[in-house]
Amino acid sequence: MPSLPQMSREVRLATLPDGLPKPEHFVVAEVPLPRPDDGQVLVRNRFFHVFAALRTLIGGSMKGAPLPPLRPGDTLLGPAIGEVVSATGDSGPQAGDLVSHWLGWREYAVVPVGQVTPLGDALPDPVAHLGQGGLAYAALTRDAEVRPGDTVFVSGAAGGVGSLAGQIARLLGAGQVIGSTSSREKADRLISELGYGAAVIRGAAPIEEQLAKAAPDGIDVYLDNVGGDQLQAAVAAARPGARFVLVGALSGQMSPHGTGGTSPVELDTAQLIVKRISIQAFQGHDEQARSQWLERFGRWLRAGDITFPHVRVAGIDHAPRALHELLEGRHFGTVIVEL
């Protein structure tokens, strides 16, 4: 591979943080360019996704987490998009193909053929594959079963999931969509750019009071990215038969205390029973929902019915800072590092 560099860079965890990870807890290491074996491809990463759940992996305190904990010296990981530059055999992705995989946070990655997904032309901009709309779509259509006229509340509405969830709920026929966020600036953007009908702001007043004002007749669906007092407020605002889907636990992951592996909350179970509220965890991705989402997302993007709010951070050297800023709530939409 004479046209390829001899070395590659990757972001590694240097030390375990006490609280939220900061740039000094990481190092951008230079390593020999990895070489693929049979059944593997070498991918030059072009983009990777920076996501809050890394805090939980770095803390390593959540039992049963789907990904292994990160220890000092480990390379970070996450969704990435890249170009295949070397492949063995004639089956599977070939050089020049654009693919997605889970070995982000590095310039080059050797990935088993079975763990890369060719992107094709389903979306007008390949970087949109790093959005979390597929998660929001499955949660709203399959788990919560949003119905025309529903009042939908989305917590963490300015994040990667929420910034697409509100738009999806509206396109599915929701009568009112309410989002929560951390500042007046973000609240204004939710309403002016993403079609939210109202927004509640954490810290401005009790969430329960703000939500009661925004939805005086109650809510039918709650897409929970946060937990904590926002989940409590949703229970108080729920209509009989409301459907809750638990997607994230940002109240724990973005807390400066602890390790990000827990998100405790006290709920009034009497209200759950009286109102017949159903609460379930997000049931994961499935191929049928993913295929349907890509088809609809591509069509909505091309028609201008939906946008993909995201922030691009240039260069792997700035990736640790991007993670710290994400955990501090500074960004709007999905955070992506562009290599």
From TrEMBL:
* Signal peptide interval: none
Q: Which organism is it from?
A: Acrocarpospora pleiomorpha
Q: Which GO terms describe its molecular function?
A: oxidoreductase activity, acting on the CH-CH group of donors, NAD or NADP as acceptor
Q: Which residues form the Enoyl reductase (ER) domain?
A: 19-337
Q: What Pfam families would the database entry show?
A: ADH_N_2, ADH_zinc_N
Q: Which UniProt keywords apply?
A: Oxidoreductase
**What name has this protein been given in UniProt?**
NADP-dependent oxidoreductase
Coiled-coil region: none
Q: Which SUPFAM superfamilies match?
A: GroES-like, NAD(P)-binding Rossmann-fold domains
Q: Which domain of life is it from?
A: Bacteria
